[in-house]
Amino acid sequence: REVYERVLAGRDYNWARAGVAKIRMNNGEHEAARQMFQGVIAENRYYIDAYDQMALAFQLMGLHEEACSVLEKAAALSPNSVPRQRNLGQVALRLGHVGMAEKAFRKCIAIGEYSVMKTADAYFGLARVCGIKNEPKEALQWLLLAQREFPVELIGLRAKITEGMVHHESGDYRRARKCGDELEQMLEADPARPDTPTCLDLAILLFAVGVKEAPVELLCYVIRNNHDNPVLQDEVQRIFDKARMGEEGNALILASRKEATDLMNRGVLLWKTDKMPDAVAWMRDARLKLPNNLRILFNSAQIIVSHLQKNGHDGALAAEAAQVLMHVDSIAPGQQRFAQLMEQLAALAPVVAAATEAVAAGK
User: Which CATH class is domain 1-65?
Assistant: First the structure.
C-alpha cells in the first residue's frame, strides 16, 4: 500500500488507485473500495479489472443485483474472459436471471475449452440452469462431462450436490432424496467440511429433500468459522427461514457466534495476562475446532509470534505459525495482516542465528 501511495503522491495513475482499492477491499473496507473502483471507471471506462473488482465489492456487501449489473457491463466490453463469464453466470443464477446465466455459462465453457482458467463452475452452473428449465437430460450430460474434464477427487462432492439440485429443480424428488442420502453419508464418513459456498449449497439441498440435522450442523459450522461476517449470517438466516426454521435458526446463529467469540476471547485473555504457553495451547485447540475462522487463525499466529519475540526462537513454533499463515493465505489471499505477520516471523530467525553465532564466537 505504501508503494501505491508513493506513486499516487507523484501522479494519479489508475492502476495505483485500483491497487489501493484492492488492499482496502481485502481489509474489509468494501464501500470505500467500491467508491475507488467507481472513480477509476469514471476516468477510464475500459479499465476492465476495475469492473470485476467493483462487482466483488458489491458481492461482499451482499448487493448482488448491483454486482450483476456491473459484471454485465464488463462482459459487454470484454466478453472473452473465463472468470468474468463464470462470475456473471453465478450471480445471475443466484438472482434467478436464468437466461443471462445460461448465456454466460455457455460462453465460459466455450472460451475456456483450451484455457488454463477452465473451470468446473461453469459446467455445474449450466447443469443447474438446465434443471431449472426442466431439461434434466442435458443437465446430467453437463455433469458427466465435468467429471470427465476435471479430477473427481476435486469436484466429486460438488457434482453430487449439483445432481441433487438438478433432480429437485426438475421435479424428480425421489432421485433428489437419493442424492441427499448419499451426501449425508459422505458427511458422516469425513469430518472435514468443504468451503463456505459448498456448505451453503449442500445445506439448501439437504433441507429441500427433508434432511434436518446435517444441514443445521453445516450452517452452524459456517457461522462459527465466520462469526464476524454479518452479510454471510444474513444469508444463513434466509436459508433457515426458507426451511421454516426462522426462530430456531436465529438462536443457532447467536449460539454459534458466541461459541466462536468465547473461544477466541479466552485465548486473547491468556495472551494479554502474559500466560503465553497456555495461550498458544488454547488457540491450537481453537484452530482444531474452527479450522477456517480467520480471526482465530490470525490471533493464533500473532500469539505464537509474540511468544517467540518474548522467549526466543523456537523452530517448531515458528513452523507452526508459518503453517497457520499459509493456510490463511490459501482460504483468503491478499490479507494485509498476513503480510505483516509473515514479516515479523521472518525477522525473528536471523536475530536468533546472529546471536547464536556471537555466542559461538565468544566461546
Answer: mainly alpha
